[in-house]
Every structure is written in structure tokens, then in C-alpha cells.
Amino acid sequence: MLFWIFVFLLTKQSGLTQGHPDLLSRAATEASCDCTINSCRTLFDIVWGCLATIFACTWVALHQNVPDPNLGWFSLLMRKLRMMLVTIIAPEVIVGFAARQFVSARWISKEFDVSTTHGFFCNMGGFVSEEGHPVSKMKQFPAYMPAIRKIKRADIEDKSKGDTLSKGVAIAQGLWFVTQCLARVSQHLPLTELEVATLAFAVLSVAIRLLWLHKPLDVQQPIVVARSEVEINPLQEEDITPMNNGSLTLLEKLDGAIDGEYKKYSPISSTSVPSFYSIEIDVEDANGLVTFAGVFGVGSIFGSIHCAAWNALFPSMAEMWIWRISSVFIAAYPALTILLMIALNGWAQNNDIPGAVLLSLLVLGIVIYPIFRLFLIILSFTTLRSLPPSAFVDVNWSNYIPHL
Description:
Strand order of the largest sheet: 1-2
Strand content: under 5%
Order of helices and strands: HHHHHHEHHHHEHHHHH
Low-confidence stretches: 1-9, 13-34, 237-246
Helix content: 55-70%
Number of helices: 15
Radius of gyration: 24 Å
Number of strands: 2
Shape: globular
Number of domains: 1
């Protein structure tokens, strides 16, 4: 409820569209450049502040799984760039990924009496056997958990490139940007479209960082653990017997990124876990519920924040309507997708024509979604060419902090 009130207040900001010529002329005269240098900001200040925040919300916030130890620096760079691109185009995928790993890590921590950091390290492929294969399946734990328990949490955290303090500072950075936006709304100062888009990333970044607070950052080399001598049951044979999985198709990679399930993945034939991998825990429908919450909730929040620029000043009517349509679609897409999937698996499952129609709509949404996301990204920058003078007025912090 508080979030929707927050979006409503942003929507009521004093920005105006080109469709209101009388109000446009008023916006052009208010808060003009007669302000002092201490109360003004430049276009460079706006762009630099937003880009720095977006970089912190995408590149810096990413806690990747442990990569293949044989990868070179260029392959590692491209690996992170691909994940950064996914964060920009479909941030709800990253939030769902972080939520799955958080739930799995907490469950492993309670089930096997280890720390949450140990649970995250298992999820990210941080523990490997003496043969170099990840210990990343629940059925492997009876043989390797005695050795994993002997690893101190401090030894795992020592491999991390960031501690709790640095992660706390990063969270504070995102909260500071949100605070600045709220202050501008409070003082009836307009937010640019770029700031609104950055605000959406900042809000999601705080959620991602909190979910990954105890996950080690940018670990490059795993920890080798020895296998204990335990009796092997038939269910464990698939995890100790080499098998040839074959290469994953693009559709299988997308499916794995969304729900974390890689049906062809086997640790014994790999040297690392997939990029969006999380251990499937022994709780019925746990992964499905987390995915549902991540896709529906986060996707709707992300799109709704963009709707806050509904009444912003746009250089043209076409740009205004492209922004509005794209924002509404991004906000409504998760709910529409879930409804289509329910209908497809329900009454349309045994009906060929309705099933084909629903499946076509589902595929069409998947194709259109990144296009609308690109529209919002492009418009965030193109609309900077025509900003109202009040957009360059800085927040007067003395209203909140006396004698500043």
C-alpha cells in the first residue's frame, strides 16, 4: 500500500506534457535560471548522477555464481556484461534469481546446521569435489556436508570482494537516490524521465542487495572439499556417475534463467554451475512460488514506477504516448502472463485452437516486452533535449536540515 501511495505522489509531480500548451508556457517561466549557483544543477549533473546509480544498480550489485576456473579475463568480462544486459532489459529476472538463492540458502542453513553464507556458497557452485566438479545438488550433500561444515564462514567471506559494510554503503547509495527523488516531489520539482527510470533501478537494487547481503561477491576460485565415505543409494548414482548432457539450447537457457531449473545440468560433467543456477530445495512448489512472486511483484513495481512520469514534460506527443504505453505494458505484462499461463494449463489445455491462440499471445508478449523496455531506455535520454527550467533547480535541503 505504501508503495502505491509513493507512485501516486510521483505521478502528481509538477511536470507537464506538451499536450497542455497553456501549462507548458507556465512551466517555461517558473524556476528560471535566476537561481543561485548553490541551488542549480546542470544537465551533466543529472546524467552523471543517474548513470552512476544505474551502474551501481547493475554492474556493482551483481553477485555472480562462481565461474569456470579455466575462463580468461575477457570471457569473465563478457559473462558479467551479459548479466548486466539482462538486469537492464529484464531486472525482475535478477530479483527472482536472488530470491530463489536466498530461500535455498536459508533452507540449507537450517537443514544442515550451517551458516547462510555456506548456503549461498553451495548455490553459487563455491564448493567443488577433489575432481573439480561442483557440489551443487541436494543428493550430493550427505557425502560432502561433513567437509563443508569444517569450512569456517570467515574463510568463505575472505574470498568475497565485498564485506557487509561495503554492501551497506551500496544500499545506502540507492536509498539516497530514492530520498532525492522524494525530496524533489515534496518541493514540487519535476523529475526527468531518466531520473524516473533510474529510480526504478534503485528501488529494485535495494531489494537485490538485501537478498544477497550474505552472498560472497565476485568469487573467482571455488573451495575444494573431500567426499566422506558414506553408503551410496541408487538416487545418488546420477550425481557420481559421469554423464554427457550436451549443450543447452537458447530456450533451455532462458527457462533456466527464469525458474532456475536446468534439467540437463549435472555437476559431475561440469566444472561450474550455470549463471542463474540455484539449488532446488526439498520443499514442494517453493521455487515456483518464489518465481511467481518475483515475476509478478517486481515486474509490476518496475513498470509502475515508470508510470510515475505519466504527466512529465515530453518534447513531443508521440514520445509521451510511447512512454505511457510502454510503462503500462511493462507494469501489466507479469499479470497478463500469469493469466495466460493459467488459462493455457487449464481450460485451453485440451482445446487446440484456444490453446494455439493463447500460446501465440504468450510468445508475442515475450517478443514485445524487450522492445518496450528499449523504448523506455531510449526515451530516458532523448527527452533530455527539452527539459523545463524547473528541472535544473536543485533540492533545498535546508527545508529538512536546518542551518545546512
